[in-house]
Amino acid sequence: MARKDTLNYPIPEFSASNLSADVDNFLNPTEVNLMDNVGVTLGWTGTPVGTFEVYVSNSPKPKNQLVAADFTQLDFGTPITIDNTESQHLISINQIPFKWIAYKYVFSSGNGGMSVIMNNKQVGG
Q: What's the pTM value of the predicted model, to 2 decimals?
Protein backbone atom coordinates (compact mmCIF):
# COMPACT_ATOMS: atom_id res chain seq x y z
CA MET A 1 0.00 0.00 0.00
CA ALA A 2 1.34 3.43 -0.92
CA ARG A 3 1.84 6.01 1.80
CA LYS A 4 1.24 9.73 1.82
CA ASP A 5 3.14 11.97 4.23
CA THR A 6 2.08 15.56 4.84
CA LEU A 7 3.51 18.58 6.60
CA ASN A 8 1.42 21.64 7.48
CA TYR A 9 3.86 24.41 8.29
CA PRO A 10 3.18 28.07 9.08
CA ILE A 11 6.10 30.25 7.94
CA PRO A 12 7.14 32.10 11.14
CA GLU A 13 8.53 35.21 9.44
CA PHE A 14 5.08 35.98 8.07
CA SER A 15 2.92 34.95 11.05
CA ALA A 16 3.35 38.28 12.81
CA SER A 17 4.62 40.36 9.92
CA ASN A 18 3.95 44.02 9.37
CA LEU A 19 3.51 44.55 5.64
CA SER A 20 4.85 48.10 5.67
CA ALA A 21 8.23 46.85 4.38
CA ASP A 22 9.70 43.86 2.53
CA VAL A 23 9.44 40.55 4.42
CA ASP A 24 11.25 37.29 3.56
CA ASN A 25 12.47 34.04 5.08
CA PHE A 26 15.73 33.49 3.15
CA LEU A 27 17.60 32.93 6.42
CA ASN A 28 15.04 30.34 7.54
CA PRO A 29 13.85 28.48 4.39
CA THR A 30 11.87 25.24 4.43
CA GLU A 31 13.48 22.04 3.21
CA VAL A 32 11.26 20.36 0.60
CA ASN A 33 13.84 17.89 -0.69
CA LEU A 34 11.69 14.82 -0.04
CA MET A 35 8.33 16.38 -0.85
CA ASP A 36 6.51 15.97 -4.14
CA ASN A 37 3.94 18.76 -3.99
CA VAL A 38 3.72 22.10 -2.19
CA GLY A 39 0.55 24.07 -1.52
CA VAL A 40 0.81 27.57 -0.08
CA THR A 41 -2.05 29.60 1.40
CA LEU A 42 -1.50 33.34 1.68
CA GLY A 43 -3.85 35.38 3.82
CA TRP A 44 -3.62 39.10 4.54
CA THR A 45 -5.43 41.86 6.37
CA GLY A 46 -5.32 45.62 6.18
CA THR A 47 -4.45 47.56 3.05
CA PRO A 48 -1.14 46.11 1.82
CA VAL A 49 -0.13 46.62 -1.80
CA GLY A 50 2.81 44.65 -3.16
CA THR A 51 3.79 41.33 -4.69
CA PHE A 52 4.53 37.91 -3.28
CA GLU A 53 7.45 35.90 -4.65
CA VAL A 54 8.45 32.24 -4.32
CA TYR A 55 12.14 31.29 -4.39
CA VAL A 56 13.86 27.90 -4.60
CA SER A 57 17.39 26.56 -4.25
CA ASN A 58 19.33 23.34 -4.66
CA SER A 59 22.25 24.68 -2.65
CA PRO A 60 24.17 21.99 -0.75
CA LYS A 61 24.79 24.47 2.09
CA PRO A 62 23.28 23.71 5.48
CA LYS A 63 20.18 25.72 6.38
CA ASN A 64 22.05 28.04 8.74
CA GLN A 65 24.46 29.11 5.96
CA LEU A 66 21.92 29.97 3.25
CA VAL A 67 21.51 33.59 2.11
CA ALA A 68 19.23 35.33 -0.41
CA ALA A 69 21.84 35.00 -3.18
CA ASP A 70 21.48 31.18 -2.99
CA PHE A 71 17.87 31.37 -4.25
CA THR A 72 16.21 31.84 -7.65
CA GLN A 73 12.71 33.24 -8.08
CA LEU A 74 10.09 30.94 -9.61
CA ASP A 75 8.26 32.46 -12.57
CA PHE A 76 4.50 31.82 -12.51
CA GLY A 77 3.93 33.82 -15.70
CA THR A 78 2.24 36.69 -13.87
CA PRO A 79 3.10 38.42 -10.58
CA ILE A 80 1.25 37.34 -7.44
CA THR A 81 -0.38 40.63 -6.50
CA ILE A 82 -1.24 41.47 -2.91
CA ASP A 83 -3.80 44.29 -2.56
CA ASN A 84 -7.06 45.16 -0.85
CA THR A 85 -9.31 43.66 -3.56
CA GLU A 86 -8.76 40.15 -2.14
CA SER A 87 -7.52 38.72 1.14
CA GLN A 88 -6.28 35.27 0.14
CA HIS A 89 -4.27 33.57 -2.59
CA LEU A 90 -3.46 29.89 -3.18
CA ILE A 91 -0.29 28.60 -4.83
CA SER A 92 0.13 25.00 -6.01
CA ILE A 93 3.54 23.66 -7.02
CA ASN A 94 3.46 20.13 -8.42
CA GLN A 95 6.56 17.91 -8.49
CA ILE A 96 8.93 20.44 -6.92
CA PRO A 97 12.50 19.38 -7.83
CA PHE A 98 14.33 21.59 -5.32
CA LYS A 99 15.85 21.26 -1.85
CA TRP A 100 14.80 24.60 -0.35
CA ILE A 101 11.85 26.97 -0.69
CA ALA A 102 11.62 30.55 0.58
CA TYR A 103 9.15 33.41 0.22
CA LYS A 104 9.30 37.19 -0.10
CA TYR A 105 6.70 39.95 0.13
CA VAL A 106 7.81 43.02 -1.84
CA PHE A 107 6.30 46.17 -0.33
CA SER A 108 4.79 48.83 -2.55
CA SER A 109 2.42 50.76 -0.25
CA GLY A 110 -0.10 50.41 2.57
CA ASN A 111 0.21 48.16 5.59
CA GLY A 112 -1.34 45.10 7.16
CA GLY A 113 -0.52 41.59 8.29
CA MET A 114 0.06 38.33 6.42
CA SER A 115 0.06 34.63 7.19
CA VAL A 116 1.78 32.08 4.96
CA ILE A 117 0.95 28.43 5.55
CA MET A 118 2.63 25.73 3.51
CA ASN A 119 1.38 22.16 3.13
CA ASN A 120 3.70 19.57 1.59
CA LYS A 121 2.83 16.10 0.37
CA GLN A 122 5.09 13.15 -0.30
CA VAL A 123 3.46 10.34 -2.21
CA GLY A 124 5.11 6.97 -2.48
CA GLY A 125 5.57 3.59 -0.94
A: 0.90
